[in-house]
Write a structure and sequence with these properties.
Oligomer: single chain
Order of helices and strands: EHEHHEHEEEEHEHEEHHEH
Largest sheet: 3 strands, antiparallel
Number of helices: 9
């Protein structure tokens, strides 16, 4: 059976070289096995979503030479492809969680949690939720004045899964804490939306950055609750700046749209990304489809690639 995967840009800003490398690896993994690719726009983070970013992400992917079988521009059975158009599915999932008392209403603000919780564990997004509202039942929401969020009861004890690239992963669930599945503004969290969508779209393979490894334990807990088969996960190293931190504006302009405007050839960018990942012995211009004959996950480096802005001067030659 051919795998099914997705490219899922978030239109909270421009796509950069770090996004591009992960998209390239996801595309190669699927196309090398005649897999199906779905383009999904993860636009539920409404305060941060930029109105131009979704269209630009599609243009960036096309510019790189990546394609897909279904998406906003290629409608198919898995439509719609914008998460903001899939709200009924998320609301239905939340109702199942509420009926099972698997979630509770939480009125804590971020500052409340920061004050009450311990310091964040390594690799976590912030302080671990201290369980302040966990004694509430789902029905208690009727007596609460909004805003409040819904948190999933994650439980305690060890958890493990085998990442198809990063290898065995373990954690104690109390190090993650009960997590938000519906935000206080009435929209689903990333954790819930991505699980509901991947299951509904039949996704069997997820390739993403290794900064999301902790999220996988949360998502696997949701898969378990709904009794859904989870996909295979491949968490790949990020592109980082010379300070060792995830690629961002502070490391210079690495936006794909900027590279396009500067007249840099996409084959040059793809060649450097492929070389950085271990697919080429040296950087050379190449199209994604020309990498398919030699594709193998065993060739991919397990170290993060450090971006040096001086590389841009070579690309402009």
């Amino acid at each position: 059976m051919s795998p099914i995967g997705r490219l899922a840009p978030s239109p909270t800003g421009a796509q950069h070289l770090g996004n591009a490398r992960t998209f390239l690896l996801a595309w190669l993994s699927l196309r090398a096995r005649s897999g199906k690719i779905i383009l999904r726009i993860e636009d539920i983070d409404s305060p941060r979503v930029k109105p131009w970013a979704a269209e630009q992400a599609v243009e960036d992917l096309r510019w790189l030479g990546l394609d897909w079988d279904e998406g906003p521009d290629r409608p198919g059975p898995q439509a719609p492809y914008f998460q903001t158009q899939r709200s009924d599915a998320y609301a239905s999932a939340l109702e199942r969680l509420r009926r099972a008392e698997q979630v509770f209403p939480c009125t804590c603000t971020r500052s409340d949690i920061a004050t009450a919780a311990s310091a964040p564990h390594a690799g976590q997004e912030g302080p671990v939720y201290p369980g302040t509202c966990s004694s509430r039942r789902a029905g208690d929401a009727i007596d609460l004045r909004p805003p409040f969020a819904w948190r999933f009861r994650l439980g305690q004890g060890p958890a493990a899964f085998h990442d198809r690239f990063a290898g065995p992963q373990t954690v104690r669930l109390e190090q993650l804490g009960d997590f938000v599945v519906y935000k206080s503004n009435g929209t689903p969290s990333y954790q819930l939306a991505v699980v509901v969508d991947d299951w509904a779209m039949g996704v069997t393979e997820v390739v993403r950055g290794d900064d999301l490894l902790p999220s996988t334990f949360r998502q696997l807990a949701l898969y378990s609750f709904f009794n859904w088969q989870p996909p295979d996960f491949y968490h790949v190293p990020l592109v980082v700046g010379e300070d060792g931190r995830r690629l961002a504006k502070r490391h210079g302009d690495t936006r794909l749209a900027t590279l396009r405007r500067q007249g840099i050839r996409p084959e040059v960018v793809v060649g450097w990304l492929a070389w950085s990942a271990g697919l080429l012995e040296q950087p050379q211009p190449i199209r994604p489809r020309d990498l398919l004959p030699e594709w193998n996950w065993n060739r991919i480096h397990r170290r993060r690639w450090t971006w040096n802005p001086a590389i841009l001067n070579k690309w402009k030659c």
